[in-house]
Design brief:
The chain is α+β, with helices and mostly antiparallel strands. The protein has one domain. It is built from two helices and three strands, in the order βββαα. The chain has helices at residues 69-74, 77-100, and strands at 15-18, 46-50, 62-68. It has a three-stranded antiparallel sheet with strand order 1-3-2. It binds zinc ion (ZN). Zinc ion (ZN) is lined by residues 35, 37-38, 40, 67-68, 71. Residues 35, 37-38, 40, 67-68, 71 line the site of zinc ion.
């Protein structure tokens, strides 16, 4: 099953990250943001997912995002993988552009 392209409203403000091993994120987009699966405001029942992205400019960062729990449970494994790749693409684009300059 092909996953449709990400909704253009989905921007960087859906991502949070940790820069150390504390329990509190260094940056947290909060829960008042968009679910990348349904492109609506996050539901009250949420799921937090980490992204396997190595950011060479911020080596200590580990990124995460949130989805509605229902959207996550509904998605197939393939759709979940595809979502991760799409989101990593958003984050990695400015990094790649910078290294091309
Ligand atoms: Zn959703």
């Amino acid at each position: 099953m092909k996953v449709k392209p990400l909704d253009p409203r989905i921007r960087k403000d859906i991502f949070g990250y940790f820069e150390d091993y504390s329990e509190k994120p260094t940056h947290d987009p909060g829960v008042d943001t968009i679910c990348p699966f349904c492109a609506n405001k996050l539901a009250d029942e949420r799921k937090t997912l980490s992204l396997a992205l190595f950011d060479p400019e911020h080596r200590d960062r580990s990124y995460f995002y949130r989805t509605c729990r229902a959207c996550y449970n509904k998605a197939s494994d393939e759709e979940k993988d595809q979502m991760d790749y799409s989101l990593i693409d958003i984050l990695i684009e400015p990094i790649l552009n910078k290294s091309n300059n």
